[in-house]
Design goal:
Length: 229
């Protein structure tokens, strides 16, 4: 078997750093779930883009007469949530579907659920939270119309992120419960330590041991054709 070399994030060759993860949807994710896992990946990318647009909108908010703390927090959210979103909720979802890991499913539900609630708050847009949501954009029209128009873009994108996250978490939960997943299975994986590096589905099949067909102590003797009753 060819050795799997880490390929994500795809860094330029002049950067003296190497990718940290191996990611290959066609190679590691069952074909029935590839579209869903890719959709979760695209949700992460879209959320990162939303955070970048939010930084620009918070800058316009500050220039138009808002508070600079929103711009500073927007930069912090972009630096913090972009890598943490990939590591803390996309990778658990990827590993959960790759190896049918109940622990990783539970980790995804917990972290992604918290991310969903946070994105709802960002879409609302409370002042001083570093997010240009609907409340911040609409109320700022009376102060600076041009800045408020810029602030509407992340408000719309945060709302789209909320809808996409809700669809993803409902679909993953339906698949997990339909496959017999439970919190007890996640506890068993934690106690056994298999949650650290769960084997892929192919490895589970290749490591199967035992008799796949029933054994007979002797070969059955059938009567000749002319002795059948």
């Amino acid at each position: 078997m060819a050795e799997k070399v880490n390929n994500f994030p795809p860094l330029p060759k002049f950067i003296p750093l190497k990718p940290c993860f191996y990611q290959n949807f066609a190679d590691e994710i069952p074909i029935d779930y590839q579209s869903l896992v890719k959709r979760i990946y695209h949700v992460w990318i879209f959320y990162c883009i939303t955070l970048a647009v939010n930084v620009i909108a918070c800058l316009a908010w500050w220039i138009g007469g808002g508070y600079g703390v929103n711009f500073g927090l927007a930069i912090l959210w972009l630096i913090l949530f972009s890598p943490c979103g990939y590591v803390c909720w996309f990778r658990p979802a990827y590993k959960a579907f790759r190896s049918d890991s109940s622990f990783n499913f539970m980790a995804f539900f917990f972290v992604f659920g918290a991310q969903f609630i946070l994105t709802v708050l960002q879409a609302i847009g409370f002042s001083g939270w570093g997010a240009c949501g609907w409340l911040a954009a609409i109320t700022f029209f009376s102060t600076n119309v041009a800045a408020a128009v810029f602030m509407l873009f992340p408000a719309v994108m945060f709302t789209m992120s909320v809808v996409a996250m809700l669809i993803c978490i409902l679909r993953v939960h339906k698949i997990y419960r339909g496959g017999g997943g439970s919190f007890q299975k996640a506890q068993d994986e934690w106690n056994s330590g298999t949650w650290r590096n769960p084997p892929s589905r192919e490895a589970q099949y290749s490591n199967f041991s035992g008799n796949s067909l029933p054994e007979y102590p002797t070969v059955p003797n059938y009567p000749p054709g002319n002795q059948w009753p």
